Amino acid sequence: MPRCLPTQLIVTLLMATLAAAGCSSPLFRGQSPDPTVAGDPVDAGDSSDDEQRVRLVGDLASPYGTAWLFVESVALVTQLPGTGSDPPPSPMREQMIKEMQTHDVKQATTTLASPQTAMVLVRGQIPPGAQKGDTFDVAVVNPPRSKTESLRGGFLMQSRMREHMVLGNAMREGHVVALAKGEIIVDAFFDDADNPANEVRGRALGAGIVQRSRPLGLYIVDDYASVRTSAAIGAAINLRFHHFDHGTKKGVANPTRDNVVELAVHPRYRNNLGRYLTVIRNIPVVKSQKLLIDRVRVLERMLLEPTTSQKAALQLEAIGEDGVPALRLGALSPDPEVRFYSAESLAYLDDTDAAEPLYHAARDERAFRWRALAALSTLNSFQAQEYLEKLMNSSSAETRYGAFRALRERNPRDPMVRGELLDKKFRYHVVGTTGESMIHFSRSRRAEVVVFGQDIRIHPPEFLFAGKEILIKREDNETLRLSRFAVDGEDVHLTCSTKLDDMVRAIVQLDGGYAEVFAAVKEAKARGLLDARLEVDALPHPNRRFNRQEDDAEVTEPEPRFHVTNPIPDLFIDRLSEEHEDSDEEDADEPAEFDEPERTKPGFFDRMTSLWTE
Fold it and tell me: Which of 375, 403, 513 is nearest to 449 (CA)?
């Protein structure tokens, strides 16, 4: 009989045979399972061997939980000055009565019939990665066939917001995922006041409160799904990112199954989740020191070339501290694209060398402004603070308010942006500035007045209205007289100086709110009684084109060479607005990490309407 070979020798021969045949671990395979994902493998050095390619998280897994969640509800608006109505019989009315009964409202039908109330539909969008307690804006609209004349002055009672779906010609409700409650600002204040439709629709800023945290994570591609791969991806991500959970340092990745890795949102990216996922997908899964050094060297060359600098900067950011020296070199480049992308990645790595180039980008280049301000808001340094304060003196309204919002995001308790809550109705800020006097009203996130300039005055008017119940008149050249006329009760009168600050506080003292202050300032500006600039939601615009002239020849209309686009920092996004100005087509060079909501898909309002009219 032939002599048996030892078991160890058999294993050794088998491994040698597999190696000769070109087999390797899936973490080192040469072909990406999805060639469209961000972060195609970068060849280390000049070798063409598959084993010499660095595998990235994006080659092995794709994110989940990236869609915006539409939530809707039927709700009750109260405190209307006789402009409400009793809704006609309909499935919506029945649902409203059931909802009121769950809130222990007595005599629900009598309450609905009052002209001081109105039934409305409430809609909102919860962002990916939202955590319990996060807030969002909600839209409030009048249902069809409603006789309500205006929602002005109304208060949205607490409503339970859910996902809804029509199955088998019947309405199905999901779990309660958010609550909504707050003061309504009708569209007539900001849009066409002569359009009656704008009186019966509006929004409640920051009124939605998330009740269920939304999961975020990675699905591992089927070909690579295994406990080993899941653990390797989790270890690579946690080597790059960690956070603190009740004082305990933890990695952001949690491999739960062979094909799932759950993710926590790193605090530095809380307003830029798209970038966070892009960076995660560019993290190398296996970090051989030699391969890493070679990869950084290749990416440094790519970074200094404007056409590839954006991709290289993101991949160096994904590497972390080892990528900082290359990014610092890029931040000194004379090319504006290279300089900006290098500085942006440095900011998310909390490197102070990012502050100055980001300041110049925000001040001088409109296409880079929104991302530069968002990056400065994440940078934990005195330089970033100083530069953002300087930007509030800019001649650009969106730069000034964008810098203010970035400062507030860095530290809400900062005396520069802390402001005060006037009568629990809206935030009020007075900011010292060397620039032009400006008054800014927010239409997203929260009701907020920001006054740039400390001695703005109103020219005494013959008369001026702050809403429908407060009248402002001239007492003398230095004094204003404010009167509130009540239908049921005594009229109230106040006097104050012509300072804008005093007038705002007097309106609030007369039980006026955000809408009344805006109405007074808007009318004063329209009638030439106010010298300061007036702006509404002057947010930095995304998707502007950066035009780059190739030579010294005069070009009348230069062709756009570079397109600044996704991922869009959530810090400057108003999800309730249907579209953004200056928006362009998507940039194929940088894939969007978020599934945009399907705007043609009918919502609860549309589906209920179709059922109603059948």
Answer: 513
Q: How confident is the model at residue 547 (pLDDT cuts 50, 70, 90)?
A: low
- Sign of the Cα torsion 149, 153, 159, 165 reads positive
Using one digit for the tens of pLDDT, what is the confidence trace for 143-190? Answer: 988 999 999 989 999 999 998 766 666 667 788 999 999 999 999 888
CB 46 within 8 A of CB 35: no
pTM: predicted TM-score of the whole model, two decimal places? 0.79
In whole angstroms, give the CA distance from residue 358 to residue 343: 6
**Two structure tokens written together for 36:** 């469209």
CB of 306 closer than 8 Å to CB of 562: yes
- CA dihedral sign, ordered 343, 347, 351, 356: positive
Residues 416 and 421: their CA atoms lie apart, in Å, by 15
In a 13 Å sphere around the CA of 504, the CA atoms on its Cβ side amount to 26
Confidence at residue 543, expressed as pLDDT on a 0 to 100 scale: 67
Over residues 471-525, the pLDDT tens digits come to: 999 999 899 999 998 767 788 999 999 999 999 999 999 989 999 999 999 999 9
Residue 196 has pLDDT above 80, yes or no: yes
Q: Check: CB of residue 350 under 8 Å from CB of residue 342.
A: no
Q: What are phi and psi of 114, to 5 degrees?
A: -70, 140
> What CA–CA distance (Å, rounded) separates 29 from 572?
40
Residues 244, 248, 251, 253, Cα dihedral to 10°: -90
Residues 6+ apart with CB under 8 A from 520: 464, 465, 466, 467, 470, 472, 503, 507
At residue 503's C-alpha, the angle toward residues 497 and 509, to 5°, is 115
CB 367 within 8 A of CB 560: no
Q: Which two tokens stand for residue 583?
A: 């928006």
Please answer whether residues 562 and 545 qualify as being in contact, where contact means their C-beta atoms are separated by less than 8 angstroms.
Answer: yes
Spatial separation of the C-alpha atoms in residues 277 and 280, rounded to whole Å:
5
Which segments of 432-527 are extended strands (E)? 438-441, 448-452, 464-466, 470-476, 479-484, 492-497
Vertex 9, ends 6 and 13: CA angle to 5°?
145
| Cα–Cα distance measured from residue 110 to residue 143, given in angstroms and rounded to the nearest whole number | 19
- The pLDDT mean for the chain works out to 81
Does an H or E element contain 262, and which?
strand 260-263
CB contact set of 287 (below 8 Å; sequence gap of 6+): 236, 239
* Residues 392-432: tens digit of each pLDDT: 999 999 999 999 999 998 888 888 899 999 988 899 999 98
In terms of Cβ atoms closer than 10 Å to its own Cβ (0-12, 13-18, 19+), residue 120 is buried
Q: Which residues contact 324 (CB under 8 A, 6 or more apart)?
A: 316, 346, 349, 351
Residue 366's CB is within 10 A of a number of other CB atoms, namely 18
Helix (H, G, I), strand (E, B) or coil at 8: helix
Burial per residue of 495-526, b for 16 or more beta-carbon CB atoms within 10 angstroms, e otherwise: ebebbbbbbbbbbbebebbbbbbbbbbbbbbe
Closest CA to 435 of 393, 494, 398, 466: 393
Listed by start position, the domains of the chain span 25-64+216-287, 69-214
Token pair 């009344």 in the structure block, residue: 516
With tokens 């409203």, the residue in question is 96
